[in-house]
Amino acid sequence: MDPLHRNQASLPDPCRVVTKWTGSMLQTWLLRRHSRECMRGEPTVSSSQKKIQMMAQRELEQERRERDASSAKFANDIKNLRVEDTVVHELDHSNAISAVKFTCELLGDEVALPRMRLRSYLESYLRGEMSEDGVVPATLMITSLNNMEPRKVAMETIRKYLQNILENQSEPKFRKIRMSNKAFNDRVLSVKGGREFLEAVGFEEREEDNGRVTEKYLVMNERLHSMMPDYYR
User: Which residues form the PUB domain (predicted)?
Assistant: First the structure.
């Protein structure tokens, strides 16, 4: 019987398996058997043992050759490794993309421009409309010329300012915003249309002396404050 295979005859057909021992496993088995035989005083060498030892030696030699071949291939691959420079290929239709023009419902279909030029044109148009009813063009500036997150933060901050004024009519401190305030700069002044909206609802820039330095504030105009609708009070 082949010493490298288990006996298959006694196994049920669906479960029949053949288990091959590798050279290293066979070598370990031989060493253990040799130790047991030495302890029992049995002969250490027999014809069958020599045959098994030769088979184990062949297995180990085959493993060594395969390992050396794999190492040599890896070393050769590393030696010949090249890093290619990244080449950016311009798409054939890139010129067509740059020629795409956009329109704005507010400006009408007759104004068709590339995206960034249209945004600049729209901003100039809305600023030109501020002298009429500033609240509407300022609101359109906030919603049309800014990314979603800055726009959302600015509108929430402005809403809070106005809510504080309406809920605290007799408190002058709520009608004044220090322009050097970092949060105010980050949330409102950095957004296109933010300051314009505050000015449209009655805030004016003023300088006030706080005892040490003169600072700039946006202060709600008293006359406009007194004209606020009664249902807001």
Answer: 149-222
Residue 205: strand pairing partners: 218
Supply the pTM of this predicted model. Answer: 0.56
Residue 148: pLDDT band (50, 70, 90) is very high
Distance CA 103, CA 108 (A): 7
Q: Are 145 and 193 in contact (CB under 8 A)?
A: yes
- Which of 67 and 130 is assigned the larger pLDDT? 130
Distance CA 199, CA 197 (A): 5
Which of 73-77, 104-108, 227-231 is the most confident on average? 104-108
Q: What is the DSSP letter of 209?
A: E
Cα–Cα distance between 90 and 74 in angstroms, integer?
36
CB 165 within 8 A of CB 157: no
- C-alpha to C-alpha distances, 98 to 91, 113, 144, 145, nearest whole angstrom: 11, 11, 22, 21
Question: SS3 of 83, please?
Answer: coil
